[in-house]
Batch of 4 targets.
Target 1
Amino acid sequence: MIFDLLAHQALYRSLSPRFAAGFDWLLRFDPSTPDGRIAIQGDDVFALVQTITTGPAAEKRFESHVKYADIQCVISGTELMQFAPRSSLPVLEPYDLSRDIAFHADPSVSSDVICGPGSFALFFPHDGHKPCCLAGTSQRVQKAVIKVRV
């Protein structure tokens, strides 16, 4: 897991050309973009633009992926994200290949990251994560999740 500001994205472009394409798209992001899926490089790199309302962490589930890494970039609002190694997460719903997702129960130990505007959390397939949690009070958050095939 990596947490940083989009202003520092140049540090992570060398992960692969796909990550670089995702960061390029985020740098050009227009906040008036409607929610939905946007192709960047077909199914290899795409964006999911989302407007969510944060809620209590106890009402959210950890998730993990196999085929994609997530760059979860907050555009507006503040969101708490939890993370833990996937290997430490009890499985609630087994991996669904068609959706590239498994859901997990809370582990005994996890870490929190508070993401505000212009920050991102990069979750690799070995990182379980619980997004959309409130940081203090519930609020509306606009975010872009870049899915990068690894």
Target 2
Amino acid sequence: MNEHVLVVEDDPVIQEGTELLLKRAGLQVWAADDGAAAVEIFGQHRFDAVVLDVMLPSLDGLEVCRQIRRVSQVPIVMLSARSETVDVVSGLELGADDYLTKPFHGPELVARVRAALRRARADERPCVVRTHDLEIDSAAFRVLQDGAELTLSATEFRLLLELARNPDRVLTRDVLLERVWGYDYLGDSRLVDMAIKRLRQKLGDDPGCPRYIATVRGVGYRFVSP
């Protein structure tokens, strides 16, 4: 089955080039050149990934990301023409899975989108991990905390599952990038740190006195055994 990608970019040259790259990679591509149109199109069709520019007319990319995350956990790769950390951090805090700064190389964009699609369709080895008050069901892609279901993005789910499968073992950021995001040299440790931050917030975990996820400074993260 062909996978469908929504490209949201208001620069016609970049939009056309991105569409061409992804179509050559065998993907079905839809495009929007402003935020409001992107939200409307997303609500009318099923997409497997979204490539989303930060700076857009009508609604900026951060607001589009926020609205998509209210209804879907589809992988989102954000694009930013600015190098300021605030754009990257804001997008990741809202639930974006990855990002690229402009100008970017075409093969790198394709690699990022392909990695996002692989993660989304990955056939995790079925298991149920029960630890603390959590039940993590990989087959159902569901996490229960004290019987209540948590709303996690696909990345947050895989991150929690990877940590919980390795209790009391320190997993470096590079290892988590490889196992959860599916790449290493293309990655950025901020992806891991921001996903951990979102995951802790949803778990109600205090990083100063962690119940679930402990930070090992300068190394990575460790899931705390009950």
Target 3
Amino acid sequence: MKMQISFYCLLLTCIFLSASAYSENRYVTERMRITLRSGPDVSYKVLGLVGSGESVDLIEESQKWSRVETDDGKMGWVMTRFLTTDIPKSDLLEKLQKEHERLKDKTKSYANENEKLKTENKDIKKELSKKVIELKKLTNSYENLNKGCQKYKELKTKHSKISDEMKDQQKELIQLKQEKAVLESYQLFWGFGMALGVLAAGFFIGKSSQKKRSSRLY
């Protein structure tokens, strides 16, 4: 008999411990604040208040009172009829409205950011168009400069060629002048020689004529 009583006591203890260890979420019902007490009766000390929509962990539940733990770690008892397994519709609606407003603000922020990006994109396109025009101008300037450089190279080549030709012509002219001077000196020498020859021949002819005349007189 004692063993049976001990077994039943042990069984009840296990059931109580398992019920105490088991925890579920509960929410305070619509638009109110309930008292959190130190025991399962209105005569117990008030430990705090739990507002509508706040979540508590259910530790022990009975028909009238339930033992709970709040989000800030307080343990106490509240009336079971003020607890519900679902989030109160008014609080849910308020949360949804707040979320809706947050999403609206976020959407406006995204829209404003999108407008800013559009404006920046337009500015970037304008700046890009300016850069393209500048690049075309620079390209044309470079091509003209390159053409000018090519012409300069061609002119330089022609100038070098003409300079070389002029140098060669100057050398030829100097050589011709030297040859002319030599030729003129030869011509002068031969002319002088011929003049001397003519004078000598005239002299000898005159002498021979005088001798002939002299012989005729005698």
Target 4
Amino acid sequence: MKTGNERLFKVLNANGTACHGGTLRWSLPNGRPGAWHAVTGSLVPCERGLHLCRERDLLTWLGPALYLAETDGERLDADDKIVVRRARLVARLETWTESAARHFAVACARRALERERAAGRELDARSWAALDVATAVANGHLDAKALTAAEAAARAASGAAAGAAAWAAAGAAGSGGAAAGAAAWAAAGAAMDAAWEAERQWQTAALLRVLFPEEATR
């Protein structure tokens, strides 16, 4: 949910439990916002408080389920998160699916490979093939067995190439078949040999187009 012009998020497992540390099981929205949660004591990043993401933080914390969140009261801004006294989940972002996460991973990795090709560097065909398989899996045309084989081949290619773009391609097909993990891995790899901040800005914009497709058509 936007607070003013700012949109805030919470990344969780689908059942409301934490996927990046913490013990709170969040009250999930169900046609209306979940219950408010609150903490006492001093707010300390990674130690005490309710942790939320801004748009620019999402790439760091991608996980299985993304929720719009809102807060009021005390707030502490950190480098890659905010810590708040009181918050609740407003709605789950149903656009963040296994398929959407895998497609986003492929987009990040493909961009990195194309950047390498434009620079005249030789690329292992196994990296490109892994992206084709990951796309087919995202579209429901292949199963996890094909993805596992593609990941193994892409990992071998990344070892031979020793390049971040090849690593990103392996990530897009990897993370044990978990699409959200693959998205985070591929995005990080794709930014490694690039101008980091510019690449992460591109990735954030691309991710927001996935999450809010109606805004991309305006």
